[in-house]
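Hey, can you fold this one?
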Amino acid sequence: MFSGLLIILLPLIAGYLIPLRQISLLRLINRMLSWIVYIILFFMGISLAFLDNLSSNLLAIFHYAAVSVVVILGCNFGALLLLERWRPWRYQHQQETLPSRIAMALESLKLCGVVVIGFLLGLTGVELFHYATQASEYTLIFLLFLIGIQLRNSSMTLRQIILNRRGTLIALVVVASAMVGGAINALLLDLPLKTGLAMASGFGWYSLSGILMTEAYGPVIGSAAFFNDLARELVAIMLIPGLVRRSRSAALGLCGATSMDFTLPVLQRSGGLELVPAAIVQGFILSLLVPLMIALFAA
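Sure. Predicted structure:
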């Protein structure tokens, strides 16, 4: 029962126990994480190709992902707007010139291309590809180990998290409203409650949530989780510049775990430097919770 939980938690904890001071090693780990994500998503695409009743499963992936995006993001957005009305976030900042949002969206869509390439190669039926599932499991363990090291050495202390109340509050609202969305999602899609809650626990970290969900529930649910969380990032990129003027809480919260990395430059240019500490705190909290919550619900 707890084997899946241990596969996720043990390498994560082992990595978190390793302090690193060498900047060069940390940069190497960041580069390795990028490449490993591509490798595991490639394996995920191959696994999709070996599904029985392939056409009906692809329709199921699209259906699950589409409903999840609407329900979970809708719950997040509604709760964040209420938070903004309850505790308005005052600011004085003029937006800077933003990079092309289309270019940023295409950058994240590269990961979809890797899944598609793996899927197309898997359709060839080469015998070696039948080991893709086992290979992805071992690669996942190494990935989680590196993520543990990265979290430990992110320079974010407990004191910094507690002192930035806005970032912590927004993260808590995102988690609570996502769980409500996950429960509604499970009801609409006729899924077990734990599965719906696990799908809602990716918080935009599509590269990790898709991998973990595939390991726990198979390539159909895993792929749906991947596209659900990818859609969060794409929606956030498109909405941040306009939304930050009306509701900074919603603009930040929609980014989910990506607010400490990929969407951070957009947040900074749209909302100013005063938005950055809250964005990093929210992103750190949600990034830490993703593997823990998925492991909990998948156990």
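The chain has 13 helices and no strands. Let me know if you want another pass with a different chain boundary.
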